[in-house]
Amino acid sequence: MAAKKLYLKGCVFERTVKAKLEEDGWTVIRSAGSKKPDLVAAKDRKVIVIECKSTKGSIVYLDEKEVDNLEKTAQQFGAECLFAIKHVKNKNWFIVALENLEKTGKKYRIKLNV
Fold it and tell me: Which fold is adopted by the domain 2-111?
């Protein structure tokens, strides 16, 4: 049951990001389930791919393979690779570009200013 609850929270966040992008004039496709990337969006000939994550803390760790696969997908679309990170305690969310990830061994780290 806990896994389903987490999935639903992730789904709601993905839909929130999608709605905000559409409000800003983007055309957005959401990949349901565990498919990557979570969102692909286009506007004015610019394409972005977005992976959505949530955290209770101020640091998010991402698996190297997951980041590399997302970057490869972005390159195939000629797109920019972004991460939408939601801080679940204060409900703020942030957009982080691939180049702002910090490499730490076999993981990537994102530090949030919360």
Answer: Trna Endonuclease; Chain: A, domain 1 (3.40.1350)
This prediction has a pTM of 0.86
Break the chain into its structural domains and give their ranges.
Answer: 2-111
Mean pLDDT value of segment 77-92:
90
Collapse the DSSP code of 12 into the 3-class scheme (helix H, G, I; strand E, B; otherwise coil) and give the result: helix
Report the alpha-carbon distance of residue 14 to residue 23 in Å, rounded: 14
pLDDT at res. 54: 87
Catalytic annotation, pick one of 31, 34, 54, 58: 34
Statement: residue 33 has pLDDT above 80: no
Q: Is 34 among the catalytic positions?
A: yes
Ramachandran angles phi, psi of 28, nearest 5°: -125, 135
